[in-house]
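Fresh eyes needed here. Have a critical look at this protein's tokenised backbone.
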Amino acid sequence: MSLQETLTNIFVSETQIPEAFRLTAELHQGEYLCNGQMKPWNGERHTVLSPICIQTANGLERKVIGSYPLCTQNEANEALDAAVVAYNNGRGEWPTMSVAERIACVERFTHEIIEKKDEVVKLLMWEIGKSHGDSVKEFDRTIEYIYATIDALKDIDRQSSRFEIEQGIIAQVRRSPLGVVLCMGPFNYPLNETFTTLIPALIMGNTILFKPPKHGTLLHYPLLEAFKKCFPKGVVNTIYGRGNTIVPALMESGKINVLTLIGSSKVANQLKKLHPKVNRLRAILGLDAKNAAIITAKADLKLAVQETVLGALSFNGQRCTALKIVFVHRSLVDEFLKGLTGAVEALKPGMPWDAGVALTPLPEPQKPAYLKECITDALAHGAKVINPGGGETVESFVYPAILYPVNKHMKLYTEEQFGPLIPVVPFDDLEEPINYLIESTHGQQVSIFSQDKDEVATLIDPLINQVSRVNINCQCQRGPDVFPFTGRKDSAEGTLSVVDALRAFSIRSLVATKLNDSNKHLFNEIVDTHSSNFLSTKYLF
């Protein structure tokens, strides 16, 4: 059987889908959350087509999952106004609520969404083609992230529950919210990555304008009722519609205090420029990345191959932390390519519900054509597809391609492919990959493979000032979530992690007075009577 036939056969008919993973009915979302109400929508809708194609009498057809509202600027403005009113210049119920009360709301919310796990996991599989195992992992990791965020906020609260005395001034320093947050997450981790910004922004007392990602929209629908039930009205509001249509006006309003986006640096730059007072806008952004692996002559080749496959092809390479270009010392390149080819051939293609599946369909309809364009461009500039069948495409499925030798004249040398292509570049001198990272517009992470301590040390020092994370003998990755997650250059703005995210969505504020008997008495009265949530020595265990 040819590879083309094998790839065609991974798509099955409706009756061949295991019952546990079938969609019992299409999910047509007919409402959205605004100002504490689930508001009906009867207007234009966007039909959601799965990357999973179904064998039919007419050939392969994308499965219709459902649809969601394509709201207009009017609905977006209504949601913005609700968030503004709920914040009320910092005087709203949510921003003035005690830390303990906000934590209690988030805990109730977490219990509610855990009940929706099976539904969300199934939608993750059907909407973005993520394997069942990875979909479960994404949901579980999101829950872990929420609880870790709660614990981190308790730590911050304990540390700030005391008064500081310096130079005759007594003060209490705490963190305060920033205002209205526009939150937009990515399609590749539509639940987890979205919640790594939404939850810390929310728990710090901000009000939220939440636009689900273009792919992975419907999976948020089962969670809307939990948002409505667990938070005061107007604190979380959802907006739907075409981002390029409704988001610019929201930014131009000047009412957005924080922009958080995980996506394109080009889009982020455009949106920031629309704000009438850019200096008043805080931006927390996770953007493009072109993470490199550097495999030196002194690398453990077996380990390098293993980590490169994981780093480059986990979730089909659709991760900002994926390895997107691989530099290999010329003395090892033939052996490396042989090992890498074997490792790719060992990966199982299939549907998200298939046991042990490693390669699945791609959710972006235009992505196969773009990847083909990248391959064609690389071939035209002297590269070859090294692995048998590399780049073979059937509808939404693209078989991984190893391309070698890649050079600076090719798209794959600089562009983030965000898909299952592995560009391999030979090098003779370590200065070559170092200069690549210096000249790159991206600066998220790098992976170094070497067993020589002096060589590793020589690479760490220049590279740590070009990227935000240097990985030694392992793939690039985000986790653990308590570690900083950010980037330099065009790859990020602001730092995300559990603790860093809480800081990013808040500002250090203080109440201070001169240290004398009168002021001490005044402060003590406020604390003793629990008159203020800010000026307080209460803390959480």
About this structure: Residues 73-286 form a domain with the Aldehyde Dehydrogenase; Chain A, domain 1 fold (CATH 3.40.605.10).
